[in-house]
């Protein structure tokens, strides 16, 4: 997500604000993100709040749709809350003006701040270009001050726009501010990361020795310096930066995201958006209903294929040229560098998922197929049934906002009163925009908004997955709040750890609900729902990564047509879920589901981060179960460290080392395999097998 094209640690903030993320599609859980210059140096995905789990019901993890319906007693019915679209007017909205101090998106105070920022940026170049060998500390502090102002203005306008996407005046306002910053960055700031990367090591160590204050910025400085082998000449970097908001992939991916949010589908006599259809499909226990919904979605997405193909061709083409010109060795090296994780660790993860993970995935869906046959009379297991709810037990399928808040608070408090208190701060201080409504960015995310945040955008419809999404995004918020003390340049964790708190938040709420399950049927239903999520976070995300690999390899030889993307998507389904008849009896109406996975456009090769995080969290939870003494404080220390520790140092206090080749296979067998074994045993006890 970076306009400067520097894939390492210098993602231009402009692109990060212009592009929308994958979290926008449904229960996408998003990596908390900060609009910070540090991230305009360090790695894109964290800059835009909507980076997240690219998941939709029947395409991935879950749903953030507007209307929720379910079937009990044999007939479809809307839940009382969902029937009124969760009574949008009654659900909490965030209060951005209170926290940012602006009167509204057109407040002239923002223009004055940006004008002053231009003067600061110009002075920054005058004072420090060519002088970092003697003034590094002063330069870093000045850069930090610029970052604070930038965060205030650009994060505010981004958040304000995300609840009013159809407001063209507001879109123009955002674009103007982004272009203004793009000019400042290109003219006055580009030199900083390049000269810092080239700074002589002996000189840098000498400056460290003479200043303990500078030494505190070492993680940030080392982060920037890792880009040295891949930097281009200063004039080239400047040209790339200044053109970013006017040309190239940024405007195209933004157009893609806006067009995706405007798509409508004919459903039950109405023109509704994608999330409504997906939400209804995800909670329906009627197989025919689900398949009709799947067909409506796929047919509707066919009309969008050219827009999606254009954007993805632009992204893959740009990625190819960047890799070639900057000297990256393989397709993922650029992303791995920004994540601060070696290529071989990621390769080991992907290989473990493609073998052990796929084996467990097929085993799980075979189990689910049998349970659906026993409980719903399912005769044919299709892609539309993949995330179908299991209609057993006594638990509700629909929750009010107040119930969701109480469930998350209770789960958090059982593990960590500190996290529970931080969660309630976000609720009580109006930092969460809750309702699903037209004109609002889809999905869910948590924006770090250093100095003012965090803020969560949800599309809450009352489903069980919406409760999990609240737990997930609130984990990001807690992570942000705990790490703010590291300062704006160092609070955001590497992406390999950015999902730790969010997925752990989901896990502790899930475990709390599991402990409270009143019957074996309820326990089984909860287990299956959680395994759905894990498979979608791990196997599904790695299948997305494989799709990206095929797309990028294909794009390196020429332009790809929509039919090429369809074929590649189908190939990946077979690789990770088996041929038709092996587990799924049919892949009908899946050909165009690739078109709405926004991660492919905004953050290439980011998706493995979810598999990485989910398996790490599964291993962490295993450590907690074996010995809870002192665990909470160790985990809070990990979160407080923000971006000052890499994944190896952060996880070593727990006795975990993801760099070991066997780690991922062991994690899959313990985390996913353990839950799957319990689900199989319960299914046998209850007579479903």
Total strand segments: 9
Percent in strands: under 5%
Shape assignment = globular
Estimate the mean pLDDT confidence.
85
Strand order of the largest sheet: 7-9-8
Largest sheet: 3 strands, mixed
Counted by DSSP, the helix tally is 29
Q: What is the helix content?
A: 55-70%
Given as residue ranges, the uncertain stretches (5+ residues, pLDDT < 50) are 1-86
What's the alpha carbon Rg, rounded to whole Å?
A: 24 Å
First-to-last CA distance: 47 Å
Assembly category: single chain
Coarse structural class: mainly alpha
Please describe what this structure looks like.
The protein is mainly alpha-helical. The protein has helices spanning 13-18, 37-41, 80-83, 96-100, 108-128, 132-162, 168-198, 201-210, 212-215, 218-225, 234-243, 249-262, 274-283, 287-302, 305-326, 333-339, 343-376, 401-415, 417-428, 464-483, 495-498, 500-516, 520-555, 562-577, 599-602, 608-626, 631-640, 647-651, 663-685, and strands at 30-31, 51-52, 69-72, 75-78, 264-267, 270-273, 432-435, 445-447, 455-460. The chain has a three-stranded mixed beta sheet with strand order 7-9-8, covered by helices on one side. Strand 3 and strand 4 form a beta hairpin. Helix 7 (168-198) runs antiparallel to helix 11 (234-243), helix 13 (274-283) packs antiparallel against helix 14 and helix 23 packs antiparallel against helix 26 (608-626). The longest helix has 36 residues, at 520-555.
């Amino acid at each position: 997500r970076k306009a400067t094209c520097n894939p390492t640690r210098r993602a231009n903030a402009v692109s990060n604000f212009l592009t929308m993320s994958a979290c926008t599609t449904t229960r996408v859980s998003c990596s908390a993100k900060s609009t910070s210059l540090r991230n305009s140096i360090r790695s894109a995905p964290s800059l835009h709040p909507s980076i997240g789990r690219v998941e939709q019901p029947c395409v991935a993890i879950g749903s953030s749709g507007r209307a929720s319906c379910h079937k009990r007693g044999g007939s479809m019915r809307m839940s009382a809350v969902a029937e009124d679209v969760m009574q949008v007017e009654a659900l909490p909205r965030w209060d951005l003006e209170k926290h940012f101090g602006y009167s509204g998106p057109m407040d002239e105070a923002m223009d004055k701040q940006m004008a002053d920022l231009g003067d600061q940026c110009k002075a920054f170049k005058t004072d420090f270009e060519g002088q970092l060998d003697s003034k590094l500390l002063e330069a870093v502090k000045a850069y930090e001050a610029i970052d604070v102002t930038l965060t205030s203005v650009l994060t505010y306008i981004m958040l304000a726009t995300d609840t009013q996407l159809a407001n063209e005046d507001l879109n123009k306002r955002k674009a103007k501010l982004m272009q203004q910053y793009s000019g400042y960055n290109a003219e006055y700031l580009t030199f900083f990361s390049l000269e810092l990367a080239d700074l002589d090591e002996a000189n840098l160590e000498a400056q460290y020795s003479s200043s303990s204050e500078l030494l505190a910025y070492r993680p940030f400085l080392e982060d920037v310096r890792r880009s040295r082998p891949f930097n281009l000449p200063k004039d080239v970097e400047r040209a790339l930066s200044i053109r970013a908001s006017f040309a190239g992939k940024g405007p195209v991916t933004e157009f893609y995201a806006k067009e995706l949010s405007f798509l409508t589908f004919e459903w039950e006599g109405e023109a509704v958006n994608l999330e409504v259809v997906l939400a209804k499909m995800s909670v329906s226990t009627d197989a025919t209903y689900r398949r009709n919904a799947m067909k409506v979605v796929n047919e509707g997405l066919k009309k969008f294929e050219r827009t999606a193909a254009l954007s993805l061709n632009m992204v893959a083409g740009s990625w190819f040229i960047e890799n070639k010109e900057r000297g990256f060795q393989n397709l993922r090296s650029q992303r791995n560098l920004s994540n601060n994780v070696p290529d071989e660790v990621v390769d080991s993860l992907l290989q473990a998922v493609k073998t052990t993970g796929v084996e467990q995935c097929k085993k799980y869906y075979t189990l689910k197929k049998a349970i659906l046959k026993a409980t719903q009379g399912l005769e044919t297991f299709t892609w539309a049934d993949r995330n179908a709810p299991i209609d057993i037990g006594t638990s509700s399928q629909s929750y009010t906002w107040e119930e969701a808040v109480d469930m998350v608070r209770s789960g958090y408090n059982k593990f960590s009163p500190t996290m529970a208190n931080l969660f309630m701060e976000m609720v009580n201080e109006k930092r969460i925009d809750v309702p699903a409504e037209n004109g609002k960015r889809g999905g869910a995310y948590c924006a770090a908004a250093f100095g003012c945040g965090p803020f969560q955008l949800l599309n809450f419809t009352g489903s069980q997955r919406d409760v999990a999404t609240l737990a997930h995004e609130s984990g990001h918020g807690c992570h942000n709040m705990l790490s703010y003390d590291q300062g704006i340049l160092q609070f955001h964790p590497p992406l390999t750890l950015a999902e730790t708190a969010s997925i752990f938040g989901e896990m502790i709420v899930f475990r709390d609900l599991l402990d409270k399950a009143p019957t074996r049927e309820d326990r089984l239903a909860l287990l299956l729902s959680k395994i759905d999520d894990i498979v979608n976070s791990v196997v599904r995300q790695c299948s997305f990564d494989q799709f990206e690999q095929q797309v990028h390899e294909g794009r390196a030889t020429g332009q790809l047509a929509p039919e090429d993307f369809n074929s590649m998507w189908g190939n990946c389904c077979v690789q990770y879920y088996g041929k038709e008849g092996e587990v799924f009896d049919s892949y009908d109406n899946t050909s165009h589901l690739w078109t709405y996975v926004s991660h492919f456009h905004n953050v290439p090769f980011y998706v493995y981060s979810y598999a990485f995080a989910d398996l790490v969290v599964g291993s962490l939870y295993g450590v907690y179960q074996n010995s809870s003494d002192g665990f909470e404080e160790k985990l809070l220390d990990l979160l407080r460290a923000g971006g000052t520790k890499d994944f190896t140092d952060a996880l070593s206090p727990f006795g975990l080392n993801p760099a070991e080749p066997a780690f991922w296979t062991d994690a899959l067998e313990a985390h996913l395999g353990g839950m799957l074994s319990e689900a199989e045993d319960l299914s046998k006890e209850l007579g479903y097998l």
